[in-house]
Specification:
7-stranded antiparallel sheet; Rossmann fold; 9 helices; 3 domains; 30% strand; Elongation Factor Tu (Ef-tu), domain 3; 5-stranded parallel sheet; Ubiquitin-like (UB roll); alpha/beta
Length: 352
């Protein structure tokens, strides 16, 4: 390599370094523990979508383009150092200039929905980059079921499937027309004959209705479900008689109550990178033990829903109590969510 070529490489490297430094100082992105970027956004529009449900339009500061958000994606929203929540993105796009999320004000709010509903125009938030644990797979036909606020990821899917010209149908269950978020959007002519609204269906009426809505022997059919756990359980029970289990896709907003109701015994965990051994008491989560011993691990929901604390298992048999892993992932036994899951064996070895 000649001196001129070496000089050109050095200059190019200096320019790239300077540009990177300038970008990092712009305020659009900041790095957090665990390697995830925080994106600075502002609330530029607030809409009342239904009784107790607001949607917020989030635009990046400085007019930057946000990362791609495929249908089914969600973002983490920081509402304080110890208050982080996950919200589905309703508007999939390759290079979006905004994200729209919707939040239901929960009667038994633990602080998240109250904080989100208290936001005003111009308020600044920090969010994580989009993650997708509920991605659309290729299929000949799609059947979508949404219950209440569970419409948020399903809405993005409907818009994406319509863009693709796919064969799909959405069944949307709510208490009443007034509780139906995005009713006007889904009543647009483009969705005529592809969206069915079901208002005020009582629990005892749901399972008989599903006999007509989910039919056997539909080749290459995939189902997507999101909503309250009893609602999804009912749909899944019916669907399992009609399609393979792997063709049923679920997105949970809350933890499985059995995660806390099942017996809890102490066990030992060994950290493979250091050989350190820790005792996990019966009344303490594995995540809490790791945190108390200064082990850096990314986590968020602490309910086994979001998948943030996913950790590889090198030895022992996990006792899975999450709502995130698929059945095949559970059976493989090589990963677990340390926030809620425990151990079936006296010892676990983790890749930490």
């Amino acid at each position: 390599m000649t001196l001129q070529q070496i000089a050109a490489v050095v200059i190019a490297g200096l320019v790239l370094f300077a540009c990177t430094r300038l970008f990092r100082r712009s305020g659009a992105h900041s790095q957090v523990a665990g390697g995830q970027n925080r994106l600075s956004v502002r609330v530029t529009e607030i809409r009342n979508e239904a009784e107790g449900i607001k949607s917020l339009r989030l635009e990046p500061e400085g007019g930057c383009t946000l990362p791609k958000a495929s249908a089914g994606s969600h973002v983490r929203v920081w509402l304080g150092d110890e208050l982080v929540r996950h919200y589905s993105i309703c508007n999939p796009a390759d290079a979006p200039d905004h994200y729209r999320i919707a939040v239901k004000l929960e009667e038994a709010s633990r602080g998240g929905s109250e904080a989100m509903h208290a936001l005003g125009l111009g308020d600044r938030l920090e969010i994580g980059e989009p993650r997708n644990n509920f991605e659309l797979v290729e299929a000949r036909k799609y059947l979508l079921f949404a219950g209440g606020i569970g419409i948020t990821p399903i809405l993005a899917m409907v818009r994406e499937l319509e863009r693709r010209g796919a064969d799909y149908h959405l069944h949307y269950f709510t208490r009443s027309r007034g509780h139906t978020a995005f009713h006007a959007d889904l009543s647009a002519p483009a969705f005529a004959g592809k969206v069915s609204f079901h208002h005020g269906v009582e629990p005892g009426e749901l399972r008989p209705l599903l006999l007509d809505l989910v039919r056997p022997a539909q080749e290459a059919l995939h189902l997507y479900l999101c909503g309250p756990r009893p609602f999804m359980d009912a749909v899944q029970d019916r669907a399992m008689l009609c399609v393979p289990f792997d063709a049923i896709h679920r997105e949970y907003f809350s933890a499985d109550p059995m995660a806390w109701a099942a017996p809890r015994e102490e066990f030992e965990v060994e950290l493979a990178r250091t050989g350190k051994k820790l005792l996990v008491p019966a009344d303490t989560s594995l995540l809490e033990v790791l945190k108390c011993n200064g082990i850096a691990i990314d986590y968020s929901c602490e309910e086994g829903v979001c998948g943030t604390c996913l950790t590889h298992v090198l030895g022992g048999e996990p006792d899975h109590r999450d709502s995130f892993l698929s059945q095949s992932e559970r059976e493989s036994g090589d990963k677990m969510l340390v926030c809620v899951s425990r151990s079936k064996t006296s010892k676990l070895v983790l890749e930490l």
